[in-house]
Every structure is written in structure tokens, then in C-alpha cells.
Amino acid sequence: MTQPLFAVYGASGCGRGVMPLARAQLVGQCIADTRLVFIDDQPAAPVVNGQRVLRYTEFLQQEASERHAVLAIANSKVREQLAARCKADGVRAWTVSADNVVRMDDVELGEGAALSPFVTLTSNIRIGRHFHANLYSYVEHDCVIGDFVTFAPGAKCNGNVVIEDHAYIGSGAVIKQGRPDKPLVIGRGAVVGMGAVVTRDVPAGSTVVGNPARLFSPKG
């Protein structure tokens, strides 16, 4: 009987971090890890960390009742392109989550998330598609997170915050709590730098750094 096939799309650093979580998740579902592969469009080796590496076309050619993939690609724009590619080819978005991720009440999580160890999602949260939450990051109560958002390790998002599509929250950054009637907003495609402390709205497409966070203007 043909079985489903699962993949971590991307065999570089991000993908190698997600693969052990994917393997453990399938073992918990009594699915052999032989049904788990890496997808990489430019594979450096046929096997990485014990798992086969296939090109995308090879993945589609494998015998399978269904195909599922989690997109372990740090660049959110590329992640969006690959999500559209997979959907067009009938590859289902797959959410991979560490065993010790904490999810509290009323958390709505979009498809295709990658949740690393020690991530916490508290209560009354809405999170969009293909969210990446790296080690020790958290989302507090009453937050709305868009599609293709990335939290680097240790990113801290406090309550009543809106983070729009494609935003990137750097390692160790802290986003101050907003108010129920006036949430703090991180605009679409904004970048919050490593260790930044965000105390006010961040405009779409901008980069903020420092404590308190200010707009970054590179010197010419």
C-alpha cells in the first residue's frame, strides 16, 4: 500500500534544525523515517544528517499517496514562492512542532508552521501561514501575526501586538505590549534588529535597531 511522503524543504542550516523535529513527529505517529526526505534544488550531498536529499522534481516523482512539506527557508519571500509552487503541485503544507512547544487557549495557527523547541504561544492569538518560530521565542496574548513571519531565536512578542506579513523579528528582540484599543504594529516586511527593544509602531518595509528601537539609516 502506498504511503504518504514527507519533506523538509531546504537542507541548509534552517532545514537541518527542523529535520530532527520532523523525524520525531513522524515517529510519534508510527511513520517510518524512510518516508521523510529533504528537498533541495541544489543538493550538496545525496544524504544529509541521515535523510535522503531529493530535488523537487525527484520528490514529485516518488511513489506516494500524498505529499507534505514544511518550508525550512529563512527568506520569507522565497518561502512564499515555494508555498505557491507546492500548492500548485498538490504538495500539502505541513506544520512541524517540537514536543515541548507550549500552546495555551484559543491559538489559531496557520498551515505550514515550523515551531522550534521551547517556543511558547499563549492565549487568544491568530497566526498566519508558514510562520517560523525559532528557539525560545514567544508570542503573548491577543496578538495577530501575518503570513510568512519569522521569529529568530529568543524573539519576544508581548501582548496586543500586530505583526504584518513578511516581518522579521531578530534574535533577542523585545516588542513592547500594546493596548487592546491601540495595538503596537510591526508593518509588512519590516525588520526588527537583533536585541532591539520596540516601544512604538514600526513602518512597513523599514528596519529598526537599538534600545529603544529607532529607524536604521545605513551610511553611504
TrEMBL record:
InterPro entries per record: AcTrfase_PglD-like, Hexapep, PglD_N, Trans_hexapeptide_repeat, Trimer_LpxA-like_sf
CDD domains to which the protein is assigned, alphabetical: LbH_AT_putative
Database matches in Pfam families: Hexapep, PglD_N
Domain of life per record: Bacteria
Record domain PglD N-terminal: where: 7-85
Family named by the database record: Belongs to the transferase hexapeptide repeat family.
Name listed for the protein in its UniProt record: Acetyltransferase
Species this chain originates from: Variovorax beijingensis
